[in-house]
Amino acid sequence: MALVKSGWLWRQSSILRRWKRNWFVLYLDGSLVYYHDETQRDMDGRIHIKYSCRDVRIGRECKDVQPPEGRSRDCLLTVVLRDGSKTTLCAESEDDAVAWKMAVLEAKSTPVRLSTVRPQGTGNKAPGATGKELGRDWMPPLMAGPGVTHVIVREDPYRISGDQMALGLLAGAATGAALGSFMWMPCWF
């Protein structure tokens, strides 16, 4: 998915109201995902901005919230959700808080149409076609109206799935064992 904005933000926990620093990523589809760190391996949570966000407040609009120690109230950012809950964040600076608010509001209001295009040989058939395989560069017709952001997601033709890799390793190990090769010896111990 296309990335809109990413960076460090402080997030206030909902129960103990403690501040924790997380790496936030806002995607074009409206997903605001936060992770433990920049590696983006361990996801802490996700907010679906397009469906859940009702309002975004910054600075003095964030009532009854104390910023983290050493931070200004002007750096605060509150995402008000449709269910009545709030996610309170704190940016590194006032400008960064304004930039995050603008990015969240943009992601909230931008309609997105997703299309997936698979490389040739992976079952990419034309709608209504009778068994004809399409070429790598075929794209479905874009039927959304003006002002809609079109995101085309293409599968990587060189991606190897775990099943294919496991079968390849197993076949290589069997071949090596059959030929008496010592190259596969470390795999057995």
From TrEMBL:
The keyword Repeat does not apply. One of its GO terms (cellular component) is membrane. One of its GO terms (biological process) is regulation of cell differentiation. InterPro entries: PH-like_dom_sf, PH_domain, PLEKHB1/2. The chain crosses the membrane at residues 166-185. CDD domains: PH_evt. Keywords: Membrane, Transmembrane, Transmembrane helix. Residues 115-136 are annotated as: Disordered. The keyword GTP-binding does not apply. Residues 2-109 form the PH domain. It is found in: Membrane. It comes from the Eukaryota. This is PKHB1 protein. It comes from Cinclus mexicanus (American dipper). The gene is Plekhb1.
